């Protein structure tokens, strides 16, 4: 999937969770959504022609050489391990929330990549087998449609959060 779809997946994840954080200051939602945005494109750092890969040339090239594409950096088990480790860190609460946002953004990336033909190595490094839940080709018409749907959901969710509309029932009034 391309970075536009991933970013919209990250926004959706960020907006959903911040809509559930009732009575918390706007800065906490901002930290979480910001983290989710970064996380949503982060795994593709293992591919140097990806959006984030082009921004981080040397780092991306090195990671690709060492870890390959859609292997370690697309491995849910690795992120689960890092997530558990970071949850126990004694750091600023807001920063921790931002990190949580990053992990949820990464999760949205991994779920979206699972719907591509190439699939995702859900159990890497225990198994190299890639699991595919869909037949979406990167940059295809089908991906454009999916991206469009995500954009629409995000707009409605944002309007719901601002109490301009009330379409989604999971957003508290
Ligand atoms: Zn990816």
Shape summary? globular
Helix content estimate? 55-70%
Bound molecules: zinc ion
Number of domains: 1
From N to C, what is the helix and strand string?
HHHHHHH
* Biggest beta sheet attributes: none
Low-confidence stretches: none
Number of strands: 0
Task: Briefly note the structural class of the backbone.
Answer: mainly alpha
Compute the separation of the termini in Å. Answer: 34 Å
Total number of helices? 7
Mean pLDDT: 94
The amount of beta strand, in percent, is under 5%
Radius of gyration: 17 Å
What can you see in these coordinates?
- The protein has one domain.
- 61% of the residues lie in helices and 0% in strands.
- It contains 7 helices and no strands.
- The termini are far apart.
- The relative contact order is 0.18.
- The structure holds zinc ion.
- The site of zinc ion (ZN) has 5 residues, from helix 6.
């Amino acid at each position: 999937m391309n970075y536009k779809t991933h970013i919209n997946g990250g926004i959706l994840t960020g907006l959903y969770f911040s809509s559930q954080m009732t009575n918390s200051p706007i800065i906490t939602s901002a930290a979480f959504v910001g983290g989710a945005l970064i996380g949503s494109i982060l795994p593709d750092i293992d591919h140097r022609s990806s959006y984030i890969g082009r921004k981080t040339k040397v780092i991306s090239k090195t990671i690709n050489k060492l870890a390959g594409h859609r292997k370690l950096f697309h491995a849910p088990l690795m992120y689960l391990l890092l997530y558990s480790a970071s949850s126990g860190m004694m750091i600023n609460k807001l920063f921790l929330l931002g990190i949580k946002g990053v992990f949820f953004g990464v999760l949205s990336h991994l779920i979206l990549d699972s719907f591509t033909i190439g699939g995702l190595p859900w159990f890497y490094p225990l198994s190299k087998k890639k699991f595919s839940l869909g037949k979406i080709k990167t940059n295809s018409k089908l991906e454009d449609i999916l991206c469009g749907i995500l954009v629409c959901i995000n707009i409605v969710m944002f309007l719901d959060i601002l109490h301009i509309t009330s379409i989604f029932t999971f957003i508290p009034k």
